[in-house]
Write a structure and sequence with these properties.
alpha+beta, extended, 15% helix, 4-stranded antiparallel beta sheet, 31% strand, 7 helices, 41 strands, 741 residues, single chain
């Protein structure tokens, strides 16, 4: 029988017989100890509230909860609003959310948000106040801030002032392990501006206006610029795979396939909010992250065997033309439009569009007839769902009003193509037959600036369109079609290239689009318009069997065919070229030159680049081992008004004379330089020959040799004893034989 408490002796409970410190109960503590919430990560401090009395306090708390519950979960009893001795509130409150992530979202989305016309909320983390406002962290004595002396920064657009006065463009080349920036010298070797080893670890990219050159590293992204090519900005997003600037370079989005991992000791630019995210949207000027996002789960393809969407669509975030909005597609369900720079959802809700497959912002601020209020437009399309037809829609932002829709039937796929001025929107619709064995394409062209946004249908195309491109700042377009099945094949299919333009119309209106010309039995698969319009390159890219380039002028000044008299184009092939192993083509921003190159990223055969003028004349060819990338430096929009540009075009012939004279003088000076270089080389050779002759003469005198070694040898031979050899030669002159009887 076990002893009970009543039967225990005093000796059995003698405290001196054991030591509590010697008893190991760590396993019991670990199992049963209550874990208390550590820190104040779920708390925020809200400042800027109106001053209220005790009776008005519940009403203010309820009003405040409407905003707080939009970013997280909290309750009335979790809002503590201190009151002063006079019975009035102290104009701030402590709020507890259900998680640290919700508290961080409240700081990000509610800070600087107006509560009413007279009060603006200031929201901070409790931990930040504890970190920065703890006793001893703030000096009791005011110390005026130290203001550094003004240091003038380098002008990021100094490249526009070409020191030669010729208005040359720059381009960057990535070859081997070096990256260089060069002035284009047409036929001559490019003039180096800067050339550095290991400048990037992945690729290079220019910002849209040419202010920055981007280098990509494991630690993040760096922006370089100015006359000294110093580092201007740094964004510490590790292992970036892709990046994209907003149109005016105010923002940048970076993406990495690897989720961000914030170490315990913290990160110099990112916070715990970015942990586990893949996308970060940054403010370029301040280099601060505005918001981060994770990859979306891509929906599985439907049962009809439709082509699955890309795993990581790029760009995932698309910018409006004026940078006031950025939007992200959740394929199949919605489009989320965020207001910049606060990155809050427009109207605090996503735009629900059932089945939405893709969308595109208008590349310029639209100017619809009869619409005076501010707006940005984006277009989207949805496939056929059940008995509902496919649909293309135009939506106005910020009103979220649908301004135009178009129903489509028998749709396999659709692609959205905006014209650069947002004057037209072309929807390339691939339609299938009832048996789904054949496919053809129609073009649905929205005339954005005309009243009611009418739609013109181009249905004369019998084959499948594999490429489409609008003329920049123009109203003509080129398509490439094929009658063979599309997709990866051993032998690329034969293609046809078709040109379209409007017919002539009276007044400012643009006529209907008409077919201009079709070029059959081609291998072409790519279209590259000059950024100034008019000229276009039709090329065969990334084709092992063919690497043709064809240069066309759509405003040829020669005689116009009778069949094209009513059309707004005069098509002429100006030149052809061949670049073996061609992988990429890019026009310079002025529209004067075209660069084509074969990149080692695609293959290792005959890597290098060619440069052509707009007419297709090859100016330069340079094979470069391990050539990776070429990128022309963009230019910002001109500061000249339309009237000033018109005046320049009017007097272009006068300017041309000056430029032609400069070109001739430069060519003559180049020829003169060649002649002088050859003469200098000849003089150097003659001087070397004279020095060698002097050395030989000095050596002859030292050895006592005759001045003419041949004469000396003759005299030496005559002085030697001669030996006479007599030789007797008998010769039978005649022989007669007689017989004596």
């Amino acid at each position: 029988m076990a002893p009970s408490f009543d039967h225990l002796r005093d000796a059995d409970v003698d405290e001196d017989d054991y030591d509590e410190d010697e008893i190991d109960i760590s396993d019991l503590k670990e199992k049963y100890e209550v874990q208390l919430e550590q820190g104040y990560d779920t708390f925020v401090v809200i400042d800027g509230l109106p001053e209220v009395t005790e009776d008005q306090k519940p009403k203010l708390v309820k009003f405040l909860l409407k905003k707080l519950n939009q970013v997280g979960k909290t309750r009335e009893d979790l809002v503590y609003m201190p009151m002063g001795e006079d019975g009035k509130s102290l104009r701030f409150a402590f709020v507890e959310f259900s998680s640290a992530a919700e508290a961080a979202a409240a700081v990000r989305q509610l800070d600087m948000v107006p509560l009413d016309k007279r009060h603006t909320l200031r929201v901070n983390k409790m931990t930040d106040i504890d970190r920065y406002g703890r006793e001893g962290r703030v000096d009791e004595n005011y110390v005026p801030p130290k203001i550094d002396e003004f240091a003038e920064k380098e002008h990021l657009r100094s490249f526009l002032a070409d020191p030669s006065g010729r208005g040359r463009d720059q381009f960057a080349m990535y070859k081997g392990d070096s990256v260089g920036v060069f002035w284009n010298n047409e036929k001559e070797a490019p003039e180096a501006v800067v050339d550095r080893q290991h400048w990037t670890e992945s690729f290079i990219q220019w910002s849209p206006l040419g202010s920055y050159l981007v280098s990509v590293h494991q630690q993040g992204v760096q922006l370089w610029g100015g006359a000294s090519w110093s580092r201007q900005k740094r964004f510490a997003h590790p292992f970036v795979n892709m990046l994209d600037f907003s149109p005016c370079e105010k923002y940048i989005v970076t993406w990495s396939n690897r989720p961000i991992s914030i170490p315990d000791e913290g990160h110099p630019q990112l916070s715990i909010d970015e942990d586990g995210k893949n996308y970060v949207i940054w403010d370029v000027e301040t280099t601060k992250p505005l918001r981060s996002f994770a990859n979306l789960d891509i929906p599985a393809p439907g049962a009809d065997g439709a082509k699955p969407p890309p795993k990581f669509p790029w760009p995932a975030f698309k910018w409006s033309a004026d940078e006031k909005y950025v939007a992200r597609l959740t394929q199949g369900s919605s489009i989320s439009v965020y207001e910049l720079p606060r990155m809050n959802l427009l109207d605090k809700t996503t735009i629900k569009i059932d089945g939405v497959m893709d969308f595109e912002w208008a590349p310029a601020t639209p100017q619809r007839e009869g619409v005076k209020q501010y707006e940005q437009l984006f277009c989207y399309w949805t496939p056929e769902i059940g008995s509902n037809p496919a649909k293309v829609g135009l939506m106005s932002i910020p009103s979220k009003q649908i301004v135009r829709t178009l129903n489509l039937f028998s749709v396999t796929d659709a692609k959205l193509h905006w014209q650069s001025d947002a004057t037209y929107l072309s929807v390339k619709v691939d339609r299938h037959s009832k048996s789904k064995k054949s496919q053809a394409t129609t073009l649905e062209i929205f005339r954005i600036k005309e009243k009611g946004v009418p739609v013109e249908v181009v249905d004369t195309i019998k084959d499948t369109v594999i490429n489409f491109a609008w003329e920049p700042k123009g109203d003509r377009f080129v398509i490439i079609t094929t009658s063979e099945p599309t997709g990866p094949t051993a032998v690329p299919p034969k293609t046809s290239v078709s040109f379209f333009c409007p017919e002539k119309a009276k007044g400012p209106t643009v006529g209907n689009f008409k077919h201009l010309r079709t070029l059959e039995k081609k291998n072409s698969n790519a279209i590259y318009w000059s950024p100034r319009g008019r000229f276009v390159v039709i090329a065969t890219v990334a084709n092992a069997q063919n690497s043709d380039l064809e240069f066309y002028d759509l405003d040829f000044e020669g005689e116009k065919p009778e069949s094209d008299k009513d059309l707004t184009a005069n098509l002429q092939l100006t030149n052809t070229a061949d670049h073996y192993g061609l992988t990429d083509i890019q026009w310079d921003p002025s529209g004067r030159f075209v660069a084509s190159w074969a990149s080692v990223w695609k293959h290792a055969m005959e890597n290098g680049y060619h440069i052509y003028d707009f007419k297709g004349e090859q100016l330069r060819e340079e094979p470069v081992e391990k050539f990776r990338q070429l990128a022309w430096r963009p230019r910002p929009p001109t500061l000249l008004s339309k009237e000033e540009q018109k005046q320049i075009r009017k007097n272009l012939r006068e300017y041309s004379k000056t430029f032609e004279q400069e070109d001739a003088e430069r060519g003559a000076s180049a020829d003169l330089a060649v002649v002088e270089a050859r003469r200098r080389m000849l003089d150097e050779w003659l001087a070397w020959r004279a020095s060698v002759d002097a050395e030989v003469e000095e050596e002859r005198l030292a050895r006592g040799l005759p001045a003419n070694p041949i004469e000396g040898l003759v005299e030496q031979e005559s002085a030697e004893e001669q030996q006479v050899i007599e030789e007797i030669v008998e010769e039978v002159i005649e022989e007669t034989e007689e017989i004596v009887p």
